[in-house]
Amino acid sequence: RRYRGSASETRSVASSLLDQICGRFAEVVAAAKALVEDCPSACESSCIDCLQTFRNGFYHTHLDRKLAAEKLNAWGDRLKPAHAIPPKQPSQPPAEGTHPVNEAERRLRHLLLGADFGEGIRGEQIRLDRAIGTTTPDVIYRGAQHDENEGVCIYLDGLSQHLHGNPATAEHDRRIRDWLRNNGYEVIEIAASELFDRDAMMRHFRKLAGYLGNTSLRERLRSDLSWFEATVATAAAASAAPVPRPLQSSSPPGITTLSDPALSERYVTCLPLIPLRAAAGAFGDPQHIPDDSEWSQWISIDIGRKLRRGMFVAQVVGKSMEPRIPDGSFCIFAAPVTGTRQGKILLVQLLNETDPETGQRFTVKRYESEKATDRDGTWRHVQVRLKPLNPAFAEIVLTPEDEGNVGVIAEFVAAL
């Protein structure tokens, strides 16, 4: 049942429903078992009288009510906690030793550059074996002795508390890094808390220099720690400086930046300016529209149409959608995406892939899907294509197995 209310009211209702589900879980299991065991049509696997609905149409060929009954009987009707689920967005300032992802990655980059390692390679996906899948290290470095499928992978760990409380996640990470070490790669794991530890970073960077075969740099890092002190000074100056306003130096004509518009003006005459990564995290749940308080930067907009909550502005980098979306354009998006996605230009988050142009997990492309109808009249996706408008760039082709690894965040409305 759809519930309409403020974000806090919605969260309260959702929490209440979850409490009821947990408290009456035996009844939930009993209802599920009755559904799969007593199908009025006595179907062999699934039908519209038991499991099939319009919403799960893509999975109709995979549904099996008899297997579901078997699993429900095996699992029982009791719940027990496995580990805590962290909030999607922090509800309080990070505790000591933990840092927002963007802050930690930025600090690591400054440290690497200060120590003369250069930019490295970011966003490169490494395909492992079928059982493990893929991995995208935070940074990859390759020395003169390394082939294309070799190198040094750096992972920044400890950015999410759930890594320490979820044994399955920790085990999966261990398998990935063991595979890399056994297949031509070296792996360096840096804890986010170590980014502020001079001696720890010196040890990590000396190891990196050794893996790259740079003996002189390895020795210099031991005796000359000015690169670390310079990074600390730069970070301190940045934190004391005023926060830059992204549109002030290159605002499109008629666009005004606002830091704290009146509540009555928000989503009426102005929209929040949000980085793509933040937008993907905040608008990734179609049932949740973030609070106004989550955004500190707003821009005044008049595009000749009514604004609404769920709209936001983000900068799109890359030439794959030119000429409609020029490189560096600030664009209006609207979330959630309703109705058919066919032919729409969408902001998409790729969980196991990266955009071949930018190397990022967030991409703006035209969505086109190919569907097939089964004998029972149900349909399923055969292929989804994320197509650029610029013919010089390749499309991203997704198979049905990839569907769960793609998140549709918002629909493109206009470029400013």
Output the radius of gyration: 25 Å
The ordered string of helix (H) and strand (E) elements is: HHHHEEEEHHEHHHEEHEEEEEEEE
Strands of the largest sheet, in order across it?
Answer: 9-10-15-11-12-13-14
Structural class: alpha+beta
Q: Roughly what is the average pLDDT, rounded to an integer? A: 77
- Give the termini distance in whole angstroms: 37 Å
Strand content: 15-25%
Helix content estimate: 25-40%
Low-confidence spans: pLDDT under 50, at least 5 residues?
88-102, 160-165, 237-254
Strand count, sense and barrel status of the largest sheet are: 7 strands, antiparallel
**Number of alpha- plus pi-helical segments:** 10
Number of strands: 15
Gross morphology is globular
Characteristic key phrases:
416 residues, alpha+beta, three-stranded mixed beta sheet, 10 helices
Structure description:
The protein is α+β, with helices and mostly antiparallel strands and 416 residues long. The protein has 10 helices and 15 strands. The model is unreliable at 88-102, 160-165 and 237-254 (pLDDT under 50).
